[in-house]
Amino acid sequence: MNRALLSLLASATTLGVSTQAFAHHPAKMERCESYEFTGQLERIEWRRPHVELFVRAEDGVTHELTWLAINQLEIAGIRQGTLQIGDELTVIVGIRPNDIVERRMLLNYLHRDRDDWGWTETPQGC
């Protein structure tokens, strides 16, 4: 009886963890399809699970970009203050197919024009 209960609890825990993983990683996000634009950093939110950048493109549209987790950026030497509001940025983002500018996008490449600083992450499987 204890073995059956333990097995049931383990299964429920596994299901709960996998459901949470899908909660913030959209299944249809396509990192291999990309969109490049230049714009000005309007806002940056250092929060979990991912850092979010808000960049106003030259056409006036503000895009929400999902970056890495805070601890991943810290390992890469990127901290709060690395980017400043008003920085002119060139970005390449992964997009949802047929949804190029309407929703959150995953950041693949970031370049700050004023000092040639940059960051990139090669999308897996591309």
Low-pLDDT segments: 5-27
The proportion of residues in beta strands is 35-45%
Main sheet: strands, sense, barrel? 5 strands, mixed, barrel
**End-to-end C-alpha gap:** 48 Å
Mean pLDDT: 78
Output the helix-strand order.
HEEEHEEE
CATH class: Mainly Beta
In one word, what is the shape?
A: globular
For the CA atoms, what is the radius of gyration?
18 Å
CATH topology: OB fold (Dihydrolipoamide Acetyltransferase, E2P)
Beta strand count: 6
Number of domains: 1
Based on the coordinates given, report the CATH architecture. Beta Barrel
What can you tell me about this protein's structure?
With about 130 residues, the chain is an alpha+beta fold. It has a single domain (about 25-120), classed as OB fold (Dihydrolipoamide Acetyltransferase, E2P) (Beta Barrel), CATH 2.40.50.1010. About 25% of the residues lie in helices and about 35% in strands. It has helices at about 1-25, 70-75; strands at about 30-45, 50-55, 60-65, 90-95, 105-110, 115-120. Strands 1-2-3-5-4 form a five-stranded mixed barrel. A hairpin with a 4-residue loop joins strand 2 (about 50-55) and strand 3. The longest helix is centred in the first third of the chain and has 23 residues, at about 1-25. The model is unreliable at about 5-25 (pLDDT under 50).
